[in-house]
Amino acid sequence: MKSIGVAAVVVGLVLGAAQGAVAFEPADSPRLARAKDLISEERWAAAIPELRAAVNDRKEQNKDEALFWLAHSQNQAGDLAEAVESIRQLQSDYPKSRWKQPAGSLMIELAQKLGRRDVLWQTAVPPAPPVAPTAPRLRSPRPARPAPPPPPAPPAPPGQTQPTPPAAPAPPAAPVWFAGAYLPDMDLRVQALGRLIPTDAPKVIPILRTIALEADNPGAARRAVFILAQSRNPQAQSTVVDVAKVASETVRVAAVRELARFGGPNIGQDLLEVYSRGNAPVKRQVVFSLGERADASALVRIIETENDDALRDAAILTLGQAGGREQLRVLFVRGSKDERQAVIRGMFLARDEDGLIRIAGQEKDAALKADVITKLRLLGTPKAKEYLESLKKK
After folding, report:
1. What is the distance between the alpha carbons of residues 202 and 37, in angstroms, rounded to a whole number?
2. Which long-range contacts (CB under 8 A, 24 or more apart) does 29-37 make?
3. Is residue 336's pLDDT more than 60?
4. Are 350 and 324 in contact (CB under 8 A)?
5. 139 pLDDT tier (thresholds 50, 70, 90)
6. CA gap 314, 220 in Å, rounded
7. How does residue 20 score in pLDDT terms, banded at 50, 70 and 90?
């Protein structure tokens, strides 16, 4: 995997979020600047010793950043175990560093490379912090009933010793991936769930649905919707439909945007149902999504039933962009003057020169006819030019 993936994470999660704080951070040391130049040239093996020296230099003021780029370079060079150790050192020594977030993202990438689904699950669903014990109530102690003594072991046969009972199983080894109590934020949790959904969809999808319906973190909710939408799992796609109906406004808009890319014959009907429940921003996105799907019949239903002029006009224009020439011609005949003006704009977007020429020859309203002629001039097709020349002769 090229470095561009991690670089995008750094830009999106760190530099964009802490843009104002960057100016107050120390400038790169010559060694760190040299290492970054090597990284930009994808010379990972040459960058690693420079970064190690920066980490071990007492005068280096950006050790946390050096640790991140060290882990990144080690990952690119194939030293995955060393990359994990560098991230752990960053987590342990600099728990408040702004580089901790992209380091966590890199940790998820390493876990996936090594097939460590247990590490991904620890990130996606971290254990709850321990609850402080409550003071016990003071009660009179009752004498405990003595436990019956264990039955005596049968005597060993002559010449043999008594067998030693098996030892209790050893507790599992402590995880070596995280330093201390690792508490990833919601963005990292969603990222880990995205890596798990191909193998653990039945467990992952309900968690992503819960995140998508949380109103407190719309950014993470939208990312959860995106991951669900990218999955080919039918349950994931039906979850996106549900989210589009009941989530907060910004998340509903994001879900409707993703629905435009779904296949299947029922998506148009799903979008119409979302439209019937939505407010103006959601309805507008439904119109755009139907246009992206070129669903002319669903757009006509909105045009025929919508009372809001702005939404209806948006649906008419979108119908033109979707190439609904025949539907627009029928709407022109049925519509009021205001609706006809919108239909003319839609026919222009559909490049329906035949429909516009027919209207220009039959329309009695001078303003509408002039508008149609202007649109034909703008189209400039051979047929439109021929018709305009015929008007001059008349």
Report:
1. 44
2. 29/54, 29/57, 29/59, 29/60, 29/61, 29/62, 31/57, 31/60, 32/60, 32/62, 32/65, 32/66, 32/69, 35/66, 35/69, 35/73, 36/69
3. yes
4. yes
5. low
6. 30
7. very low
pLDDT over 60 at 143, yes or no: no
pLDDT band, residue 144 (cuts 50/70/90): low
CB 345 within 8 A of CB 316: yes
HEC readout, the chain: CCCHHHHHHHHHHHHCCCHHHHCCCCCCCHHHHHHHHHHHCCCHHHHHHHHHHHHHCCCCCCHHHHHHHHHHHHHHHCCHHHHHHHHHHHHHHCCCCCCHHHHHHHHHHHHHHCCCHHHHHHHHCCCCCCCCCCCCCCCCCCCCCCCCCCCCCCCCCCCCCCCCCCCCCCCCCCCCCCCCCCCCCHHHHHHHHHHHHHHHHHHHHHHHHHHHCCCCCHHHHHHHHHHHHHCCCHHHHHHHHHHHHHCCHHHHHHHHHHHCCCCCCCHHHHHHHHHHHCCHHHHHHHHHHHHHCCCHHHHHHHHHHCCCHHHHHHHHHHHHHCCCHHHHHHHHHHCCHHHHHHHHHHHHHCCCHHHHHHHHHHCCCHHHHHHHHHHHHHHCCHHHHHHHHHHHHC
pLDDT at 158: 55
Across the chain, which distance is largest between two alpha carbons, in Å?
A: 130
Provide CB contacts within 8 A for 209, sequence distance 6+. Answer: 224, 228, 239, 242, 243
pLDDT tens for each residue of 27-84: 889 999 999 999 999 999 999 999 999 999 999 999 999 999 999 999 999 999 999 9
Tokens of 10: 């750094």
